Amino acid sequence: MREASRRAWERFGPDPRRWDALALAAIVAGAVFRLVWVLVLHPPFDYVYSDMGGYVGRAMHLVETGSLERYDAFYPPGVHLLLAGVFKLFGPDRAGLWAGAVLWGLLSAAAPFFMWRLARLLLTPAAASLTALFTAAWPLHATSAGYFLSETPSLAFLLASLWAGYAAARSQGRRAVALAAAAGLLGGAAVTMRPQFLLNLALLAAAWLLGRRRFRLLAAFSAGCAILIGGAVVHNSLAAGKPTGISENSGITFFIGQCEVHTVRANQGQFGPPPANQQGRGNIYIFPDHEVWDQGFFFRKGLECIREDGWSHARLWGRGVLDLLWTSVIWPQANEQDLRGPMRVTNVLYAILLPLILLGTALIVRDRRRAGLPSGDLVLFLHLATVLVTAFVFFGDPRFRMPYDFFGLALLAAVLSDTFVHRWPSSAVDSARA
């Protein structure tokens, strides 16, 4: 293994151009697969049901009638507004669905590129290149492009935002402000699709405050975020007929995560966590006198479960973390026989590797701190750790975790790079990371 690592170093050396070429080749190969997947093998318009049907249906209704319905405020509006824009251009019919499939394929293909550029700022060229390779080949992400779900576009926008934001911190003058504003717009778009990404944007903002206190960048970033997030709040408030937030499903999702729920039924909908469904656990709750968007009611029911459990509720939170990792197969791929097996194997392998990745990351961060060097690994670790909030506050689900896998894969790339590539010669490690 040591000799193989030495040969790898001798071939690529400290020259970043070789690593960048490898990264671009991996990204192009991943893009080709994703486009073939969404246009030939698994067109998302052939799988319009459940959540996917909701996004497509709301988008078509908006384009065809120009009006909002009460249910439009239940989910974050970013995805169905994005699809509505596509349907407005190409029509709310087969042509529009084809155009949506192309867009999903392009956004899926863009995510590894943005992750590579982000890693290029924070890690060594070798680690960034391996990041591109791992993310471009990541089956959970690549196959998710075959469904009209929020994970594909939201991750692309989030990674583009982080890339622009961390690049702004290394820039000066108007360029820095422009990059910060772009990061805000892109990050705001991501939050309108997956509100939990607010935590990742907060980490980015904290980097400016804790570093050189670049308040101009923070102001530009905040303004960009406010435009998109504020627009989502206005949209949902108009749909709900009252002031509301980015979405109205937080209450029922909180209830599902804090109680032993298999299925919850209320007026306007029925919901249940995929892990509980696949494992056949939990209770069926029926609330015929409450709407699914009655957030106050469902938050109170969730808090009741926490109070009744007492300290034993920690067991449920722990199970949420396990559900996040490996107790179930990512949905909706779990519904398809050809995908279920490969997705399960991939998920289990990632769950087994993750503790080793975190241990290796801790050692790298420790060594770099002792040497007085900055550590982009720590930044990526913090972005990865935000997924735990989803598991604790709501519920664990591989689908919720999948976008954060990109940060875990980048950490894996950093551990492998530091262990097997940059060990020889040691002086080159510092020069490559500088």
Protein model, in words:
There is one protein chain. With 434 residues, this protein is mainly α. It folds into two domains: 2-246 and 327-433, no CATH class; 250-292 and 294-325, no CATH class. The chain has 21 helices and three strands. The protein has helices at 2-12, 16-41, 50-65, 78-90, 94-122, 125-136, 139-144, 151-168, 173-191, 198-210, 215-240, 250-258, 274-279, 295-309, 313-325, 337-370, 376-385, 387-393, 398-401, 405-421, 426-433, and strands spanning 261-267, 269-271, 283-291. The protein has a three-stranded mixed β-sheet, with helices on one face. Strand 1 and strand 2 form a beta hairpin. Helix 3 crosses helix 4 and helix 5 (94-122) runs antiparallel to helix 6 (125-136). The two termini are 27 Å apart.
List the helices and strands and how they pair.
Blueprint: H1 2-12, H2 16-41, H3 50-65, H4 78-90, H5 94-122, H6 125-136, H7 139-144, H8 151-168, H9 173-191, H10 198-210, H11 215-240, H12 250-258, E1 261-267, E2 269-271, H13 274-279, E3 283-291, H14 295-309, H15 313-325, H16 337-370, H17 376-385, H18 387-393, H19 398-401, H20 405-421, H21 426-433
Parallel strand pairs: 1-3
Antiparallel strand pairs: 1-2
In short:
This protein has 434 residues and is mainly α.
